[in-house]
Design brief:
- The complex is a heterotrimer of chains A (about 100), B (about 475) and C (about 475).
- Chain A has about 100 residues and is mostly helical.
- In chain A, about 35% of the residues lie in helices and about 5% in strands.
- The longest helix of chain A is centred in the first third of the chain and has 18 residues.
- Chain B is about 40% helix and about 20% strand.
- The radius of gyration of chain C is 21 Å and the shape is globular.
- Classes of the chains: A mainly alpha (about 100), B alpha+beta (about 475), C alpha/beta (about 475).
- Chains in contact: A-B, A-C, B-C.
- The complex binds magnesium ion and zinc ion.
- The site of magnesium ion has 2 residues of chain B, from loops.
């Protein structure tokens, strides 16, 4: 049975940049444990000699030509930004680049 | 205590493409913020990456040029972290299966040769950048995504380097090599060739590696040298005083001449790499790989050695092979002129002086015309003086010196039967000066040489004039 | 009781062509149907009526000049909210994307527009396509037109309900683990999840990139086929798209062998669904279709495998929603960290966050091999099951869902029970196969029952052929919710 301690769940929330209340964290921890409990059935299968599959059907590599296209006008690119200053997207100060 | 320095490098080189790695917007430097963007590189909802075939081709050339083993099948991966310069919250890179492994370059420092082994090369997309920190003291940063999605290769070396000198020698050769094969323009000021260095020290004779510090994003050879020197000193002081080196990322502060710790949430560093499900495996056909290998130019260090084997002095060979275009130019000059030493001198002195600011492709004249000029000199057809005049004309307009000499009758006169009557005439005309010479005023010879040259409009072979004059005056 | 909306795409095209009615009249009817059914909460945004009517008029003019663009010219179509239509919002039924208007069309949208289709508006769904009941829409769930206390299924619940309620004759949905087929089944319409790579994903907001496919919902198999033909094809903007290979052996007539996998008919399957499938088999047997028992031994590992792969990919795909370039930033966020954590913490709903957390765990260092890699290996075993089965059969028949539409709220308390309900549809996505859900009756409560045909990769033609043989012999698609 997979168990996740509180710390581990908080760490995941940090990694995923999701803010939870303590209450929510508790619920989500329970949910994750339940789902991982179900997932543990996969350990029944010996897959040592099995290759992983990334897509159900075979895909050929595809390339585009190196042609410069029109892209997006800056006004359009910025139109949906919650905060912009005409030239760019704005965020609270970034420390160190 | 005495320590050994151990350095491994991660070099990011921008591939010289028109458009981005996975989308159509341009890669030009210095454009206004957010004017080289498209839906894909901004990571808008619903977009998908399609690899730029030319970027892959350039990366392949780099891999082959650096002697790597090329994987016929490699894989794109996603590297996750949240930062405003990373539009999708992940960078598309290669992780478990890079396209190139192994390879390396031979360097020479203070007469000691050494082969620097590469671990791998992988392709990846660049991030954007924050333009002004703290705009108008408002506590805001402005994000510019012009650079986001620009194609890069990351070249990773084994921890083979032992001194800042070796690092700089390696980086210079690497940069030169990438420029030779046309993969990267190597412009460090524009950030097209930048280097991270993993630096650690260990007591002399110790096998185990010390704790490494990552020096990030250093964009000049001078800074790299200083940053590593500073870091080695800092770590030595720590160890000597019984303290420990912390594994961390540090930045070079060029003003303070110090490395500074870059505070990061170390516990939040879990990149969660996994194969990018938007991209099929990257397949490179073996035949194609071999075709590209065959199309590569001679590499700079090989060419330099060949020049030295031809008898060109080491430093001259180095200068001639510094840039591929110069070496190509030199080889044409030599081929046309035949005279090795004269060809080397003319290219190194006259030609390189003319293109110091512009670059050799901007010149009005081509290598063939310099070859003709050098041949005219070495065959004794024209005098040095006339050669200089013709070169000045080449600089202005370009053209064919061989044709000029023929059309304008500039060939110098080396036929004694043509010069002797002129000399005889002059000697009888200036009997007083002849007497003065014979009485010991030997420097009057110069007067006679000048008169002969004047009479022949500079075409007489000056060496022959001297000889004939002496014979007649002394004899 | 309007006649025009009762007909399917094929008949609609014929009516437009013969001049029996105009596209403008169709659109007026759509608008009045939608107006009447507000309570179903099907649409998140409708194109303004004057714009719709103008588009319809233009279509009518084209047609009268003999210049109709294709079989869909003037036909009203609905689009799931996670598919970009320029000018309309793409909110993915999420608060985080409230008001977001994309600057470009999805490739599938371009394809419909090239045929002259009239895109009516955006259809409600589970937030970011994560859910099986539509209850995870941040804008309120869709109600099942057959019984307003029931869910329409999900995540393409709005798409299925819009077709079932006769708002539009066809709609686009997306299917990552059954999100087209399950709501099609719950709402009594036909839905196709195409072969992975057959239809472009460009402009479709990604949930799980290796599983997502866009597909059509309509009232008949023939209409679904018409839409699929319009949608499919290699797209230079999608590296994972490809042309359907020309199947020279697509059996349009003659004997067909259909496998019936024991694993899909075990406990948990309602008697009424089981009974409906038995009857369907009897219908088919009259039309040269033979049924053979087969085994897909790794079937029951599908859900675990799916939830590992889908959530891992989702956690990555949803990283871009950070409130910097688009979307709703938490207005009181002062630091950069707050921009991320508050925007995402408040903007995403409960189910989305649950899946991001699971996916983040699956990919995190130390667990990647045990969970993600392991799941990809089991995926291989599931694919191999199908490969083996398709050596002897042309298609596979299963229920689409173990039971008919459940009551709103029934599965909300326990996320796992909601996941388990996807048991019949999930492996099709893992293996990249085409899956077609077809109505095959009603239960005693009057709720539609659906069955699923699975085909070989690019075997859509076989599924359509089977579907049409059944449909021509039955009348289920003619029944309509009151
Ligand atoms: Mg690195
Ligand atoms: Zn890198």
């Amino acid at each position: 049975m997979t168990s996740l301690d509180e710390k581990a769940v908080e760490h995941l929330a940090t990694l995923a940049r999701l803010k939870f209340s303590q209450e929510e964290l508790k619920t989500i921890r329970g949910d994750l444990e339940q789902i991982l409990g179900h997932v543990d059935q996969l350990t029944e299968l010996n897959t040592d000699a099995v290759e992983p599959t990334s897509h159900g059907v075979a895909l050929a590599a595809k390339f585009r030509e190196d042609i410069r296209g029109a892209g997006l006008e800056r006004d359009i690119a910025l139109a949906e930004a919650p905060e912009n200053l005409g030239e760019g997207f704005c965020v609270p100060k970034v420390i160190d680049g | 205590m005495r320590y050994e320095t151990v350095i491994g490098l991660e070099v990011h080189a921008q591939l010289a493409t028109q458009s981005k790695l996975f989308s159509e917007s341009g890669t030009a430097f210095g454009e206004p913020a957010n004017t080289q963007v498209d839906a894909v590189c901004l990571g808008l909802p619903g977009v998908l990456p399609v690899p730029n075939g030319e970027a892959v081709e350039l990366a392949l050339r780099a891999g082959l040029g650096l002697g790597c083993e090329i994987a016929e099948v490699s894989e794109w991966s996603r590297k996750h972290y949240f930062y405003p310069d990373l539009p999708k919250g992940y960078q598309i890179t290669q992780f478990e299966r890079p396209y190139a492994e192994g390879g390396g370059l031979p360097i020479e420092v203070k007469g000691k040769e050494k082969f620097v082994q590469l671990t791998r090369i992988h392709m990846e997309e660049d991030a954007g950048k924050s333009v002004h920190d703290d705009i108008g003291a408002s506590g805001r940063s402005l994000m510019d995504y012009n650079r986001a999605g620009t194609p890069l290769i990351e070249i990773v070396t084994d921890p083979d380097l032992r001194s800042p000198d070796e690092v700089v020698a390696f980086l210079k050769l690497l940069r030169q090599t990438l420029r030779y094969i046309g993969v990267c323009d190597g412009n460090m000021e524009q950030g097209n060739f930048r280097c991270d260095a993993n630096v650690s020290i260990r007591p002399m004779g110790e096998e185990k590696l010390g704790t490494r510090v990552e020096l990030k994003n250093i964009n000049s050879f001078k800074f790299i040298q200083s940053a590593i020197e500073y870091e080695v000193a800092r770590q030595s002081t720590l160890l000597d005083s019984g303290e420990r080196v912390i594994q961390e990322t540090r930045l070079w502060d060029a003003n303070a001449k110090k490395t500074k710790s870059m505070r990061t949430k170390e516990d939040a560093h879990d990149y969660r790499y996994f194969p990018d499900p938007d991209l099929p495996l990257l397949r490179l056909d073996r035949d194609h790989i071999e075709k590209v290998r065959a199309s590569l130019p001679e590499l700079p260090h090989v060419r330099r050695q060949r020049y030295m084997d031809m008898g060109i002095p080491d430093t001259d060979a180095a200068t001639l092979t510094e840039e591929r275009e110069v070496a190509d130019f030199f080889e044409t000059v030599h081929q046309v002129a035949g005279d090795l030493k004269l060809s080397v001198n003319w290219v190194l002195n006259e030609v390189l002086r003319e293109c110091r600011d512009t670059g050799i492709s901007q010149l009005k004249f081509d290598a063939r015309s310099i070859g003709e000029l050098v041949k005219l000199i070495s065959d004794g057809v024209i005098s040095g003086k006339i050669a200089k005049e013709l070169f000045a004309e080449l600089i202005k307009t370009g053209g064919s010196p061989a044709r000029w000499v023929e059309e304008r009758g500039l060939a110098q006169v080396s036929d004694s039967s043509a010069i002797e009557p002129i000399i005889d005439g002059l000697l009888s005309e200036h009997a007083g000066n002849v007497a003065a010479y014979r009485s010991g005023k030997k420097n009057i010879l110069g007067f006679f040489v000048g008169q002969v040259m004047k009479a022949t409009q500079g075409k007489a072979n000056p060496k022959m004039v001297n000889e004939l004059l002496r014979k007649k005056l002394d004899g | 009781m309007s006649k025009m909306c009762d007909i399917g795409i094929g008949e609609m095209t014929r009516g437009l062509e013969s001049g029996a009615f105009t596209s403008e009249a169709l659109i007026r009817e759509v608008l009045s149907q939608v107006e009447r059914d507000q309570a179903l909460n099907i649409w998140l945004e409708l194109k303004p009526s004057d714009v719709l009517l103008a588009e319809a008029k233009t279509s009518d003019e084209r047609r009268s000049e003999g210049k109709a663009l294709g079989p869909l010219d003037g036909v009203p179509i609905g689009i799931k909210d996670n598919i970009n239509v320029r000018g309309l919002k793409t909110q993915c039924a999420s608060k985080l994307l409230e008001g977001y208007r994309p600057p470009f069309n999805a490739t599938v949208v371009e394809k419909l527009l090239a045929q002259g289709a009239i895109l009516v508006g955006k259809l409600n769904m589970d937030e970011f396509a994560m859910g099986s009941s539509n209850e995870y829409s941040a804008y309120g769930g869709v109600k099942n037109p057959w019984d307003l206390t029931r869910v329409p299924g999900g995540s393409s619940g709005g798409s299925a309900a819009a077709v079932a309620a006769r708002h539009v004759p066809g709609a686009l949905g997306t299917d990552t683990g059954g999100s087209i087929r399950q709501p099609a089944s719950f709402c009594g319409v036909v839905g196709l999840k195409p072969t992975y790579s057959a239809v472009s994903r460009y402009g479709v907001v990604a949930f799980a990139s290796s599983l997502d496919q866009v597909g059509p919902l309509a009232r008949t198999v023939a209409d679904v086929e018409t839409l699929f033909e319009a949608l499919r094809g290699e797209d230079p903007l999608d590296s994972t798209s490809q042309e359907l290979p020309h199947s020279d052996s697509a059996p349009s007539k003659g004997h067909l062998r259909v496998g019936v996998p024991e694993e899909y008919f075990g406990e948990g399957l309602s008697d009424e669904v089981r009974g409906a499938l038995e009857q369907a088999k009897a219908v088919w047997q009259q039309f040269d279709v033979e049924f053979v028992p087969i085994n897909l031994p790794h079937t029951h590992y599908g859900i675990a495998t799916y939830y590992l792969i889908a959530t891992a990919e989702a956690s990555s795909n949803l990283s871009r929603f950070d409130g910097i370039r688009y979307g709703q930033r938490a207005s009181d966020a002062r630091t950069l960290e707050e921009v991320y954590e508050e925007t995402r913490g408040r903007g995403f709903g409960k189910e989305v966050k649950r899946r991001i957390m699971l996916g983040t765990f699956v990919l995190s260092s130390g667990y990647y091999d045990a969970y993600y890699k392991k799941a990809q290996k089991v995926r291989t075993l599931i694919c191999q099951d199908f490969d083996k089965a398709f050596e002897t059969v042309d298609a596979i028949l299963t229920p689409t869902t173990p039971s008919t539409a459940f009551r709103a709220g029934d599965n909300l308390k326990d996320p796992l029970s909601m996941y388990l309900a996807d048991v019949c549809t999930i492996n099709c996505n893992l293996a990249g196969l085409p899956g077609l859900s077809i109505p095959c009756g009603f239960d005693s409560a009057g709720l539609p029952i659906g069955m699923q045909l699975l085909g070989k990769p690019f075997g859509e033609a076989t599924l359509f052929e089977l579907g049409k043989r059944y449909e021509n012999a039955t009348q289920w698609t003619e029944r309509r919710p009151s």
